Amino acid sequence: MNEPMLALASAIPSDMSSKLTLIAPEILLFAGAVAVALLGISRRASLRHAVPLVTALFLAASMVVTAWVYRSDATASSGLMLPMLGGYAKLMIAGIGILLVMVAGSSIDRRLEEAFESGRAEFDPIRVMRGEFFAFFLLSLAGTMLVSNASDLIWLFLALELSSLPTYVMVAVSRGKRKAQEASMKYFFLGALSAATFLYGFALLYGATGTLVFSEMRDVLAMQAATGGVSTLAIVGGVMAILGICFKLAAVPMHFYAPDVYEGAGVATTAFLGFIPKIAGVLALILLLSIFGWSGHSIQVDGQLVSSAGLPAPITAVLWMVAVLTMTLGNVGAILQRNVKRMLAYSSIAQSGYLLIGIIAGPPAGFESLLFYLLGYGLMNTGLLAVLASLERHGEEVETLEDLAGLRVRHPWLAWSMAICAISLIGIPPLVGFFGKLALFGAAIENSQMALVVIAAVNTAISAYYYLQLVGVPMLGQPNARTQAVQLVPDPWPRRAALFCAASILILPFVAERIYSAAAASGKAPTSAKGEASASVEAAARASAQ
Amino acid sequence: MLPTLSYLLLLIPMIATVAILCAPSSLAKWIATIGSLATFFVAIGFAWMFPAWTDGTFAPTDATIPLLPSLGISLSFGTDSVGLLLVLMTAFLMPLCMIGSFTAVTERTKEYFAWFMALEAAMLTVFIAKDAIVFYTGYEFTLIPMYFLIAIYGGDNKRVASIKFFLYTFFGSILTLSGVIYIAAQYKIANGMWSFDLSTLTDFCSTKMSAPQQYWVFILLMAGFAVKVASFFPVHTWLPLVHDQAPTAGSVILAASLLKLGSWGVYRIALPAAPIGGVELDQIFAILCIVGILNAALICWVQNDAKKLIAYSSVSHLGFCMLGMFSLNAIGVTGSIMYMINHGLSTGALFLCIGMIYERYHTKDMDQLGGLFRRMPIWSFFMVFFTLASLGLPGLNGFIGEFLCLMGCFTAEPQSVAGYPGVLGPWYAIVAGLGLVLCAMYLLMMLGKLVWGPLREPASAAHHGGDHGHSGANPGATTHSSGGSAAQHASVTESSAQSHSALPADLNAREIGILVPLAVFCLAVGFYPKPMLDVIAPSVERLLAPYPSLVAEYVAKGTLMPRDDDGGGMASITPVQGQSTLHANSEPPLATVTTVRESVGQ
Questions:
Q1: Do the chains contact at B143 and A539, CB–CB below 8 Å?
Q2: Residue B237 belongs to what H/E stretch?
Q3: Are B597 and B590 in contact (CB under 8 A)?
Q4: What is the C-alpha to C-alpha distance for residues A97 and A90, in angstroms, rounded to an integer?
Q5: If you count Cβ atoms within 10 Å of the first and of the last residue's Cβ in chain A, which end, N or C, has fewer?
Q6: Which residue ranges make up each domain of chain B?
Q7: Which member of A423, A475, A539 has the closest CB to residue B69?
């Protein structure tokens, strides 16, 4: 029984240098984190003000490096289970990351900086937070990227923690309010609980398989499945790990924190929380489920090729229940909200439910559509919160629907951006959100999950009610005394981010094919340049056949 | 050339939308008028060059641009003779609506005309789409312009109406979407690649999918179409409120074209894709139709609001349309398609007439208005004319469709006395026919109140705005003759009345210019429907090809679903039929429809 396993293990070249090559983008972000942390406590205001710009530059550089690294041979020799996964994920993380920097921009520490400039306060490096915020921002992104490169449970755990821990601080410093600190504490304690849960699950998985390395665990579990079923220990471990990771997704049963934390955090951080931890969670789920034979895997047993039969039934059942409860609770909860940030918190819970449809559908279609949907969701969610971040009322964040009434009259572009993002979230064609849902639903039905799709369809209809408020209130409402005080923040970048998101939601459907095939490529074995050429020839042939 | 025209058909309204948004608001109505007229001329050109008038196929065949090949989605366009008739009707009505809105809208005019152009592009997309996703894109995108049109320019209860409209139809259509994806996914499983091409999907579903699958697919597909067409009993409730609240042009387009998206969906997707489901569920949908017809007709009887009355009559009328469709024979389906076009023209015209009254009096309440013949003879002529067309006076357009629908339903009986079987029968037609009696009653009552009788006008009528200053409460003001009103216009100071001061007591040349083409069309179709019946027949033949044998089997066995205890029932799971036998089966109905056509045409 051990012989084929050993043979497989030795066949995988575990090349340290190629692993290091693959994490070059993350290394760059680490360097960036140190750089902005130092810049942020500089005495010179111009240097401090350059912090967001430097952050964005590092992110752009990491995008370039990612594109370059994932074309090299390092992917083939890295010994990872899904070597190309990072190629799409890291580009997406860094790309949306730049938008998130635009949203955060100068909002962090704005009052303090104004006080310094007007001479009301002496410069005090202890009191400035901008450097820390963006350093933690980059660290969290680096952690999220690292998840995609995880080759064993230890790496996965560390990467998840690296992606989480900075966010607790980010929530606390995101705005100078007690509410933010309260949110941070809630977030931290529940985050610690979830970390303990999935760590316990990891431990059980280790006990069940005797190894920490994903590719070996996959073989052991496939062997168990082929010879009398996956052990109960492994299933319990898997379920606990999944439930722990639900915290990152803001999925039931770990969703309770989302409304309070999203509301308490500054709006830029809310945008961050709505997207980056979700990617980390989705990537972690993809890796964990791949161990259980999610992506289809075959092993040699007594000289015969045995294909794994997909996920064990209990795990599918747990995922199914989590998906249904998540989307239903999220959508029903959102209907009751008047605070836009709370509403979007519930909306983000519901969206996690849709994402889980892709997880349940399984690869290849579920995998591709999941990654495709994530990108669209990132743009829509960031776009909506960027609109909120571009507005203020008496120096306070604009949070309620009432504040947005009649936004069209004074800020038509922002109102239109908001409407486009919200309509796309409903899933109205031809916007990008529709194509994401279409791909997800198609993948699920292809894998006999019609019931799940009908539930999701009903949920989509429910969600139309509250997303329509985000269209209707700004576009149709009349400005009143309350909204007269709503004005643009001085920093132009949040509104540019909002416009950019809205524009890309309109444009992306026309390049959907390229994005979709990029998402598909990230689930496949690395291709040489020749392989890519033949793949594109294939696509062209299919296109002409249509 | 044909592909170019089909792209132009969609591009012109889209370009007009953008142009209106970029241009100053004073130009908006002119751009919209020119854009919609240009679209109409392109539609005529398209119809002129259309090669498939007589063979029931889809053309053009080569207007395809791949969009998302991984998922089998491409922008492909092409339609059959029925779709083209709907395109022509939509393109014909749109300029009339635009010209009709010149004075109706006073604020946010740019957006108003822009949304209408966007709406036109979306509706035309549905009628000429050959790809299910393109179809759905147009189908669903109509919600956005309509939502804004109702919510911005509607009546007092516009917010509720707009949200109700959006949620109802969105809920239904997302179920339709899951049905479509279901077929596509089954196709992917069978053939290894995605395709959303409508013909591919409907062929695959009708020939390769099992009876239970078709049954559920039909239910899912109909969930959206039934809500949209709003003639089935429990799902019609959104329509009257929306009609009541929508601006006039919105109501016209809603009744004429938007509701037809639903019946077009039934014709284009639901019936061809799932014939087994269609036959199996035929009676249920027919009963829901009839309940809808009678229910709406009874509500009409007690309506005081003229616009609501026409809205409910629209529900009732479309019930006949769908009943004809569900009779599943050539007479009924042909009648149903005739009804779609004619209902669009006559009900659209009625909404325009009511809108003209509303612009003058700011009320549609029949208790406050009456005897308008004395004040507005020209308007009254058109009102009477279109009402008669709507209630199906022989010689006007409404009659043909109504007659054929009921006749189709009547002859669709199991004994197949007319040469082909059906699952409905005389009783369905007779009960539905009660709706016709009610229809004549409520429409004539409406005419009696509005047009005839003593003159009643609201005290605050717009062209009596001058009375406000000194004798607002004077009941005698309502009896002023129209002759004095012109002089009184000068003293109008109210801002609300200002914009309407340009309107004379009776219709002006612009308004007459809108109604005359519609009236001519109603008369022409009423007197000589043969060309239309001729072009509809081949498409109907194609649609109904699989039905006669299935209906016969259903009549013989009582169900098409497989039974565990019945070995023979398994054969019905795979209804793969030879084309030749089907053709032979569909001969008799066609022969009959020709005779019907001739008898009606003369």
A1: no
A2: none
A3: no
A4: 10
A5: N
A6: 283-465+502-563+571-602
A7: A539
